[in-house]
Amino acid sequence: MKKLTSFLVILILAVSVSLVAPASSGSPDDFRLIEAYWGTDQPIEVSPGDVATLTVVLRYESSWSFSNLKADLSLPEGLEAVGDTTVHYAGPISIGSLIELRFPVFITEDVEKGKYKAVLTVEYYISRYVIPKEELEIRFEVTGKPSIDIRALNDTVYEGKQELLVEVSNEGDAALHNLEITGVYSVALTLGITSPCLCLSMCLRA
């Protein structure tokens, strides 16, 4: 009788534990960070004073399928969330799924260019099971960005073939490399009767 009672107690405890979380879920390896970058469709450069979207891409690597993931991003000092720091992702999510989470962020004027670290807290449920929260370290960089300014150095332009000098300068807060002029176009406009205006359009690639 005592053995039967002990067996029932152990069975009840085992069932109670199984209701808390699946044995193969909630591990530190449920999610793997693939990349984190500024931008939505493709990476962009950002500077202090910008409002930009920080995209975090995760891969789910556990065997349990679920939906309705909740992620909260804790930003370092000098970076502020635009709106809520919590993002909800409606699945379905299964093993191998890539999850893109986007967080609008204001990069304050006081932020220095360099590398930064944020903490992403991920929370989700599987049926009635409660999964322990998982934290991932998110690393990204505020690089600054170049800003091209173009102005003509000629005070006047006369009719006929002549040389037009153009100054290209970088007014941004990051270095500009491999600048390439891919095309120059001109449009002749007539202002009044005797005042022609020549407008030049340049295509630049950096």
Which short descriptors sum up this protein?
Immunoglobulin-like; 1 helix; 5-stranded antiparallel β-sheet; 4-stranded antiparallel β-sheet; 206 residues; single chain; mainly beta
Task: State the secondary-structure class.
Answer: mainly beta
| CATH class bucket of the largest domain | Mainly Beta
Q: If you compute it from the alpha carbons, what radius of gyration comes out, rounded to the nearest whole angstrom?
A: 29 Å
Shape: elongated
Q: Largest sheet, if any?
A: 5 strands, antiparallel
Query: Would you identify the CATH H-level superfamily of the largest domain?
Result: Immunoglobulins
Helix and strand sequence: HEEEEEEEEEEEEE
**How many structurally independent domains?**
2
- Strand-residue fraction? over 45%
Taking pLDDT < 50 over at least 5 consecutive residues as the criterion, the unreliable ranges are 1-27, 191-198
The tally of strands reads 13
What is the tally of helical segments? 1
Rounded average pLDDT: 77
Do you know the CATH topology of the largest domain?
A: Immunoglobulin-like
Helix content: under 10%
Structure, explained:
With 206 residues, the chain is mostly beta strands. The protein has two domains: 27-142, Immunoglobulins (Immunoglobulin-like, Sandwich); 148-205, no CATH class. The protein contains one helix and 13 strands. It has one helix at 2-20, and strands spanning 31-38, 51-60, 67-74, 79-81, 86-89, 98-107, 114-126, 129-130, 134-142, 148-152, 166-170, 180-191, 195-205. Strands 3, 5, 7, 8 and 9 form a five-stranded antiparallel sheet that branches. Strand 7 (114-126) and strand 8 form a beta hairpin. The longest helix has 19 residues, at 2-20. It is elongated, with a radius of gyration of 29 Å. The model is unreliable at 1-27 and 191-198 (pLDDT under 50).
